[in-house]
């Protein structure tokens, strides 16, 4: 029994050895390459390097590249260059937007008790007497020609100016005659009349013209009057009867109104 079992084991081992031997014709096929693995993670940053040595100047020639990298001291400011030619004129820009309205102006002033606008606060006249007769004594001088009368504040027929715009006025007259003549400026704004005289005595050539002039500045209120009149002083009867050419010019104008 035992001998039979041992024989069986030997036969089994022999079969295994026979089966394990193989010739070249029984070789297996190569396997396929495996799939690519996933990328690995980035490595850690390296350590900071040591600080380099500062540049050292040396005698002799130096590399041009090194000189370009070295910063020199700031130089002084150079002279101003020649001005360039004027450039071409640019195109006209578009029209800008309208500006915002300005603030209201100051309140206007009334002139002449509120009845005259600034355009009406004016008065001027200049009239001329060309009559050859001597102006009658102590009477208003009347005139034949009106040079200026804006607006009509002077009455040439009566020889009288009537104030319309209260304010400060200037009045003046000029006369030319070959005889002695006396004229005065009169007004209900004056307490005394202002007289002016020019005499042609017997020692003078009575054919020469005698020139007389005078003037005054007056503060007038509305309705006050101003006029020119002749008066007797040292004139002779022959002077009063003289009929040679004579001329009297009377003028006046507003300097400024009371509201200015």
Automatic annotation (TrEMBL):
Keywords: Complement pathway, Disulfide bond, Extracellular matrix, Glycoprotein, Hydroxylation, Immunity, Innate immunity, Repeat, Secreted, Signal. Residues 1-22 form the signal peptide. Residues 30-50 are annotated as: Disordered. Residues 118-260 form the C1q domain. InterPro entries: C1q_dom (IPR001073), Collagen/C1q_domain (IPR050392), Tumour_necrosis_fac-like_dom (IPR008983). Coiled coil: none annotated. The keyword Kinase does not apply. SMART domains: C1Q. GO terms for cellular component: collagen trimer. It is found in: Secreted, Extracellular space, Extracellular matrix. GO terms for biological process: complement activation, classical pathway; innate immune response. Its main location: secreted. PANTHER family: COMPLEMENT C1Q SUBCOMPONENT SUBUNIT A, EMILIN ELASTIN MICROFIBRIL INTERFACE-LOCATED PROTEIN ELASTIN MICROFIBRIL INTERFACER. This is Complement component 1qA-like protein.
